[in-house]
Predict the 3D structure of the following.
Amino acid sequence: MRRRNPMTCRGFTLAEVLITLGIIGVVAALAIPTLISNNNKRVVETRLAKFYSNINNAIELSEVENGPKEKWESIGPEYPMIDWYNKYLQPYLVTSKVENEEDAATGGSVLIYFADGSLVSWYSGGVTFYPKSSDYEYFTANSVSGRDFNGRKAFSFLFAPAGVTYNNSDIACFKYHVGKGVEPYAFDWDGTENKLINDSTYGCNVNSPTKLYCTQLIRANGWKIPDDYPFKF
């Protein structure tokens, strides 16, 4: 009978197994945060693009029934936001829930929830989109500064098809909004990428107090978050 060489059946030692597991752990620790971040970016990109398309399709459908958007009723104490929403948007949007936030002095606002988990807070012409509704709920429950959320968890749009008066600004400041539907925030934008990034008030940078241009920066990149985007996800 032929005897098997015991050396050919040698297994791994405990030390070798532990070293291997340690290497796997280090690789996973390095890779998993990147994978999570990339996935979060894809969620933001997909939901931003989807919202932009769906909300403007709804506005176009509403114009067939209600006439040019430039002549729609103005939101205010005499015409609350919820009434405006119910007339101009509700019949043309697919939502999972809508909540009314009353304010007799301003006309209030509405929260529009979508089936993909995103949410919109719509106050007069200001439209803030949250890719994850849970972020809005955390934002309000904890009184988090918008500076810490804008451009990362909250993204700013404007609906000002007829232009508006803002601190006595010339209507030219709204040239990227006049005659348009819901557009990424572009008040006083000069059309350059440099201003989107470096503007001291609205720019998409860590020192900006508002970061309102971040949405426009992503839109200008085809609804893809740029590789050199200043915030992590």
Notes: The first helix runs from residue 14 to 66. The mean pLDDT is 88. The beta strands are 97-101, 109-113, 119-123, 126-130, 155-159, 182-184. The helical segments are 14-66, 81-88, 133-141, 146-149, 193-198, 214-220.
